[in-house]
């Protein structure tokens, strides 16, 4: 005999199957407009006041001039890498290495803290004391250790990512309910499988939060570190250096580049990851 | 001394021998939850635990699962002492406790997957269970998109998938609305009649216990013991308005009320 049970729709899915692609497209455009119009309004106002002489055009150059200057800086001269692009790539490379190191080392340590009570008991007070210290406070001492080098800047970015990643990875593991672990163990999961099939996916929402914070902290720390220890290249160095020549158009150009890259990392790297994992699983509210 | 690894066929499926459980609360107060629990559950028996809140019925279930350990006494299964969670038992919690990152199918396969059982037979078993619990068409859905009743169906299928000998159920229908609960009880009776596994079912609903169980174990107030065992020799599905049903229900309710009153003192 086989028993088959039919489920009434009322008892079934509580969510509608999803809206049509066209309706989704319209929604995206609306959201885009909602996001952009206040920024456009401020830029227009700025442009007008600068051109009309209501603001000092040297300290507050019109946005159009900033863009024109960026286009010039992005223009290749005799086949060489455009200046602004090179500054950007240097900064990006430092972020990639510094954050990459933090991602690997600190996620591992954080997970270990989440799993092992003694490891947690040892590191937790240290992290609690160190976490409120602004990353840039370490720069002078790191310059003494490593000099005005790339290594210094990379180390600062690593430090900026260290605490958020460790703290959130550990919290993610510790937040997994006892009953989920019990259920998995009862079903025959070894320690190895418990880690990969329950602890890791269970901690992922929190791990992702830690990594987003690490990159945004790292990005802030990078610009500061490049101003203090920059060795000729990088967006922070560019801004600082342009200031000494009163080249405010380049200063603003560098700031725009920093904003664009920050947005790109957030929307291009972490949003798709979140959409594919924790939003699909319902372990976080869709933004 | 020799240690027997043979399953003793004369032993009951589950044997709870002089089990006591005390614990310390966060305020440092000692609580004697279970005083002296003694019971035997036979192979294929549907046993229900009922008693006042805080009497330790869920705690005893967790000790049978191997999640917790008795302060004194032993719990044994097939004549061997239970000391840790093992896949010869399956569990269904009140809060479903599904893995949100796995689909309905992924959740149901979990036990088979971690035990390394990935073959045609297990695929077939998962397919069968999905239709058995009424989840056809929802295989690829994630748990958060399902209603509470549907999630509990997934949890029941997940516990049955790797074919444990004993099903442990901790107030599985306690979080559901009345209508969903009634449907799930009826469906679970049919599922159970299909496989006749030993079931230990913790509940605080007298009606639920009497609709499902062969024997209802009534726990006393703290420190608890088994106060009374009610045998329910009525064919399923049972009629809650039948005189025989009402008779046991009245007796059970009266006895339970005494314990609830003692707990309040």
In short, what is this structure?
With 287 residues, chain A is mostly helical.
Descriptive keywords:
heterodimer, A: 287 residues, mainly alpha, MetI-like fold, 74% helix, 0% strand, B: 265 residues, alpha/beta, Rossmann fold, 10-stranded mixed beta sheet, 10 strands, 24% strand, globular, disordered N terminus
Task: Identify the CATH class of the largest domain in chain A.
Answer: Mainly Alpha
Any idea what the shape of chain B is?
Answer: globular
The main sheet of chain A comes to:
none
The level of helicity of chain A is over 70%
Global Rg of chain A: 24 Å
Describe this protein's structure.
The complex is a heterodimer of chains A (287) and B (265). Chain A is mainly alpha-helical. Chain A folds into 2 domains: 21-60; 62-281, MetI-like fold, CATH 1.10.3720.10. Chain A is built from 11 helices and no strands. Chain A has helices at residues 21-51, 63-73, 83-115, 117-130, 139-146, 150-174, 178-186, 191-229, 235-244, 248-276, 278-281. Chain A is globular and about 75 Å long. In chain A, 33% of the residues are buried. Chain B has a domain at 8-88 and 198-265: Rossmann fold (3-Layer(aba) Sandwich). In chain B, helix 2 (104-114) crosses helix 3 and helix 3 (120-132) packs antiparallel against helix 4. The longest helix of chain B has 22 residues, at 243-264. Chain B is globular, with a radius of gyration of 19 Å. Chain B has 265 residues and is α/β, with parallel strands linked by helices. In chain B, helix 5 links the parallel strand 7 and strand 8 (198-202). The model of chain B is unreliable at 1-5 (pLDDT under 50). Chain B starts with 13 loop residues before the first strand and ends with a helix. Chain B has a 10-stranded mixed beta sheet with strand order 5-4-1-2-10-9-3-8-7-6, sandwiched between helices. Chain B contains 7 helices and 10 strands. Chain A binds chain B through residues 1-7, 11-15, 177, 179-180, 182-190, 193, 197-198, 201-202, 204, 277, 280-283, and chain B through 62, 65-67, 84-87, 89-91, 93, 95, 97, 99-101, 110-111, 113-115, 128, 131-135, 138, 141-147, 149-150, 153, 158, 162, 180, 183, 187, 190-191, 193-194.
